[in-house]
Amino acid sequence: MEFVEYADSEMMMIDLADRLASELRAAIAADGRASLAVPGGTTPGPVFDTLSAISLDWDKVHVMLTDERWVPESSERSNTGLLKRRLFTGEAARAHYLPLYAEAECPEEKLDELQAQLAPHLPLSVVLLGMGADMHTASIFPGADRLDAALNGDETLVAMRAPGAPEPRITLSAKVLQDSMRRHIVIIGAEKRAALEKAQSLSPEEAPVAAVLKGATVHWAES
Ligand SMILES: O=C(O)[C@H](O)[C@@H](O)[C@H](O)[C@H](O)COP(=O)(O)O
Questions:
Q1: Whether pLDDT at 201 is above 90
Q2: 104-134 confidence digits (pLDDT tens)
Q3: How far is Cα 181 from Cα 189, in angstroms, rounded to an integer?
């Protein structure tokens, strides 16, 4: 694991966007196309703002979420809504979106359909992840109902219900995340830095982010 510390989060977001763009260009040069997975939540918005303005062959890029809350796009909690507002605009409007949500009461009803859409775009070329102070990443939460399947199973997508998550989640499995050789984790603040340090000595069951640290680059700023 590489740890990169920045003087402030603004510099971090710009540098991270540039790195992601470079890695997407490299994947396109090597394979003729690229696939990118990004998180939702409150941290990555500024990365998307910068990345969306960068010129590259976005029409050769397929983008998916690392995880989604099982809510319609119109919900303010929708990660899809976040991407459509802040990533799929400007240059990146030409990218192709692979959804992790479809209209249904619960994610289990749509798992097969959604997984089939993702399959042609795996392994992922580039992955950006967030992390919670509880050391979850994507929607792989400690104490979640299908934590073992998400950490140790062969499924691409796992439906999760976790203590503290207001709605059902759907998440890429640790296997899918580990299969990407270009993996970045972006965190802000002293609490998350301490949680990341703690996670390095815990099991993935206790600290799910531990399952994706090997080979990852962690980007951190105090604020
Ligand atoms: O749906 C989500 O919330 C994200 O996809 C999730 O994986 C996020 O990366 C962590 O929960 C950290 O969230 P913050 O960046 O808001 O702290």
A1: yes
A2: 999 999 999 999 999 999 999 999 999 999 9
A3: 26
Spell out the domain ranges in the chain.
2-221
- For residues 159 and 107, the answer to whether their CB atoms sit within 8 Å is yes
Query: Measured in angstroms, how far is the CA atom of residue 137 from the centroid of ligand 1?
Result: 7
Structure tokens at 152: 């140790």
The CA-CA-CA angle for residues 145, 149, 150, to 5°, reads 90
Tokens read off for 221 = 């700023």
Could you give the 3-state DSSP secondary structure of residue 128? strand
- Give phi and psi for 211, each to the nearest 5: -75, -15
Distance CA 145, CA 26 (A): 38
Instruction: Identify the sign of the CA torsion 126, 188, 152, 107.
Output: negative
CATH of domain 2-221: 3.40.50.1360
Mutate to test the pocket of ligand 1, among 131, 141, 171 (most ligand atoms within 8 A of CB): 131
Tally of residues, the chain: 223
What share of the chain has pLDDT > 90, as a percent?
98
The reply to whether omega before 99 is within 30° of 0 (cis) is no
Measuring from each residue's beta carbon to the nearest atom of ligand 1, which residues come in under 6 Å?
Answer: 39-43, 66-67, 69, 79, 130-132, 138-139
Is the ipTM, as predicted for this complex, more than 0.95? yes
Cα angle vertex 9, ends 129, 142, to 5°?
Answer: 35
